[in-house]
Fold:
Amino acid sequence: MPTTKKSPHATSFNSAIKRGTPAGIAVDAIARRSNTRPGAVFSSLHKAGLCHRQKFNGQWVYWACEGRKSNATVTKSRQSDFWQSFIDWCIAGGHCTPEQLAKKVSSQQEFMNYCRGFFNRQFSGASSSSRSGRTAKRTVSRKRTTARKSRPTSYKFPRTESTTRRLRRAA
Structure:
């Protein structure tokens, strides 16, 4: 990605990437030191040709043009951050309550099966078709129908206490 623009963050970013630091961690540190937003740092680095970007679910995601595999500690930490952020998203997005999650902690398998439905929901709107017009609409609607049919019944949300109370009052 050749470019003539320069970024004031290029030196710090390049040295962090060469050490195996993930791009997100490197940019967070640069943003903190320079008192700017991480998005502004990523944008500057993208314009300078030091990282790629792609719009994903309505927001830009960035990664370094060159990279190196991190050590196991960093990799494990990033994986843990990813799953923690996913659970936070489930609760913050209103897809489940903390109480509903707490009812599914008898085993890791049960918990992951319960969360799988939320994970699928996060990416359900991300698919797109290269075809245009009527054919694309039919294809997308067929995929959604198939996905709904193939979803096991274990992904249904349990009734919350407030719903149960309302049903009792109505009866």
About this structure: The chain is about 60% helix and 5% strand. Helices lie at 10-18, 23-34, 38-47, 72-92, 98-102, 108-124, 134-150, 161-170.
